[in-house]
Amino acid sequence: MINQSTDRSTFETTNPYSFYEEIRAIHPVYKGRFLKYPGWYVTGYQEALTILKDNRFQTRTPLPETTKKYEALKNIQNHMMLFKNPPDHARLRMLVSHHFTPASIEKYRPFIEKIARNLWDDIKHKRKIDVISDFAFPFTSLVIAKIIGIPDNDKNIFREWALSLIQSIDLTRSRRTIVNGNKTTLEMLSFLKNLIQKRRESSKDDLISELLSQEEDRKLTEEELLATSVLLVIAGHETTVNLISNSLYCFLTNPKEYQKLIENPSLIESAIEECLRYESPTQMIARIASEDVELNKVQIKKGDHVYVLIGAANRDSKQFSNADVFDITRNPNPHLAFGSGTHFCLGSTLARLEAQIAIQTVLQKTLNIQLETKEVEWRQLVGFRAIKEMHINFDNPSKN
Ligand code: HEM
Known about the structure:
The protein has 400 residues and is α+β, with helices and mostly antiparallel strands. The protein has helices at 16-26, 45-53, 71-78, 88-97, 102-106, 109-123, 131-148, 158-169, 175-201, 207-216, 222-253, 255-263, 268-278, 310-313, 348-365, and strands at 29-32, 39-42, 57-59, 128-130, 284-289, 293-295, 298-300, 305-309, 367-371, 391-395.
């Protein structure tokens, strides 16, 4: 039984970690009212893991009420695997999962390395860039476009789409962001339908063509095909852009760890794992209890909202020693940045590879790299950890 509460009434998005700490100190499963729907805020690592692995905690329906103003958005989200529960979830996931296995993703390594190199060669003369718009966004766009089968010259339209749709998923969303998300969905659907028509006429070696053949075999409907494509475009961008920029931010604000990586580049894999833990691009996963459940002495009732704060779980000192210290040699590092259980991130191998290659490229192609200003501005989201713009300056090593 919890008889203590916090005076806070809102989320702190610039530095959420002190807020997480404050409610964890009261209880790792804290009942609060910081978002539109009151619910349980889970900050403890073990409790977060238990919930994510327990199918009694179901993924919530994305948008509660229907109005004509956001019918298209609601409809498309309802067909995404992210918002599906068993058995539909497994069917949709299986249709695309083989594209994202470590073996399938490894085949893209040379292509991803080339994109990173070319992009950096195009911008290095500037010596002053916004990491997000000049590098991370075009980089992740070109990669996911290639996998899905979207022509390169269309990649620039992704940016507005991704920003708009991520805001309509985040629980800070307002009616305006939802209506805007609906407009974006209509644009995206029109673009994808056009592309699908082209692939119907002449198929290629890409994910869209393969999903089309599965639609013809009646394994998925056209709406599911469209929803899967929209989900992959959005999931494939936004969080990976944030992983790349958050990682660079971690290094530039922890120069000793950056130096360690420069001296020992083989640490890249564990370094990216630590970035995933320390500044997790996804901060919150929402669930709804499908029956009454007792967890760590609290009674969660059927229908209760449960907010799993993975950014908090990843800083839980009961699980991680010196949890607030950024340590690129941390081992083991069982962070929950990609979730866990049924909905464990489908794109985790791709995201890891992209981030490793992006950071290795920056490492090889820059000298004296610095943040232009000490502080960066974080986007006001509760579900995601995202820097708005990240201006850096650097010198070019003469050998490049
Ligand atoms: C750093 C980058 C990424 C992070 C931090 C991330 C994080 C996550 C998390 C936490 C979930 C679980 C959501 C839940 O349980 O409700 C998830 C699911 C998902 N992610 Fe990612 N993701 C990243 C990159 C990607 C990429 C590159 C792709 C695809 C190209 C992708 C595709 C998906 C899909 C399809 C799901 C839904 C899986 C399902 O419902 O079974 N993600 N992601």
